[in-house]
Amino acid sequence: MDEHTNRPAGGYSALPFKKLLYLPHLLSKKEKRVMALLALLCLTSGTWLLMRGYHNITQPIPAIGSSYTEGAVGEPITINPLLASRDIDRDLSRLVYAGLLTYGPDGTPVPDLADRYEVSADGKIYTVTIRNGLIWHDGKPLTADDVAFTVKLIQNPQYKSPLRANWQGVLAEVLNPQTIRFTLRAPYEPFIENLTVGIIPLHLWENVTPEQMPLHELNLKPVGSGPYQFSGIKQSTAGSLTSYTLTRNKKYHREGPYLQTITFQFYPTESALSSAWRAGTIEGFGPVANPSELPATIQAASLHPLEMPRIFGIFFNQKRSPALADSTVRSAIARAIDKKKLADSASASGKVPLDGVLPWISAPDELKNIFNPEVARTLLDQGGWKETDADGIRQKKLKDAKGKQILTRLAFTLSTSDWPDLLQTADSIKEMLRAVGIEITIEKKPFTELQSSVIRPRAFDILLFGQVYGYEPDPFAFWHSSQTRDPGLNVALYASKSADKLLESARTTEDSAERAREYEQFSRLLLKDTPAVFLFSQLYLYLLPADIQGVNLSKISLPADRFNDINLWYRSTKRAWSASAPQKN
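Given the sequence above, the corresponding structure tokens read:
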């Protein structure tokens, strides 16, 4: 140190800070501009480096916020998992109510209200332990008593639950507030799917009688334990529902939900629904009947084609129509319908021609009803159905209930919903059957009316409709003779002791290979008896906004299954430390 100059030996000291403040006065204007530019560059570079570092050690994750608006045809009536039989009712029930189990994107069962479950070695006992601290939307605790109560209501014939057939012979016992045991009379492999049914609250429903239940206020303002809870409804001046709003359940027992609100808008027809989407009133809907009308960019980004075991066919009511009781007529109809043409005419909707009676079993070659109008005409000729006048419709004398011979024309009413895709199919069938001498009059009704006035009382000649199988396929409800009356789903009123035995045996056997053989035998029997003609299976085309993330959809059973993981859907994000980011000690 130089004691005279007070500076380091052999060097110069930096300018004192106060003198640095005078530095700008010593610079020219050009030098000042250069200095300012350098300072701005340093600041920008530093900010960029900081942001880049922040992004490297963090990642975007779902955040609570935003909303979603979906459209639907028809309006809800019974948002109740025990009574719901229509898609819109099941959709809303799935959002509001939770089951012991649910299904993952790959179709495997995963815990929902349940924490875990065990199945006994003989396949007859299912013991389910539910999560700790479960509560209903109204804050009341959810326990095993609620589960047992739900099952008992399903089993009670007075409540007319369409789920009753799947719960017959099942004993539900509460072992403690968190544990319930189900004991089956015999092993039943598809029983696991029963555990996905939405659980309803004992404290709200225990005093509701069977007569009161269908029209109870809780069917429109439900209280459940699912990811979303009832918020509000809007009605038209005529009293019909126009919209239904749900808000996120802040105390939901699984991850999420992230979307703050979900609103459903209701429309009377498919065309009104499509118009609402084009106008931006709604953001998504399903199924999409005419995806070819959507812009290519929308199809690629937002249209989800979902595999679904839903099959469509025409079901014959042999008790209502003596002509349809003639197996020759049913066989001729089966040969007169070109299934490939029906599928190709709307190939954009995901139709696949079907030659069997079950979606997972192909028909043997000798029993396939291959399209052949000439064979259809020959069958009718051999059965005595002749064209005797100029109208081209075949007729024959048949005995009525009193044994009197009456001239019967091959003229039937084909009932179906007003869904455009089904109406197009109905029109094509009408033309095909007319070509072999059979007259068809099409009766179209809104789904709600079709369900109440046609399907439930079995008031039809021929019904064009669909069957939906579960993740664990079981045709019992559609074809067993015990299911011919409402709320059973055997709409063709099919009754066969041989078929009943096969269906009963298949649902109780533990051997999957044996079960497959029994279903193949049942399939052959159904094809020979021809109580229905199956036409095609169909994908469920679901349209969502492109910015909704967390959607993992590929396979569903019911349309409502698209909401199995809706708690993971999100539009808003925030950043959080990456798992790979360095951790502070």
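The CA atoms of residues 7 and 411 lie 117 Å apart. Try to locate this feature in the token string yourself.
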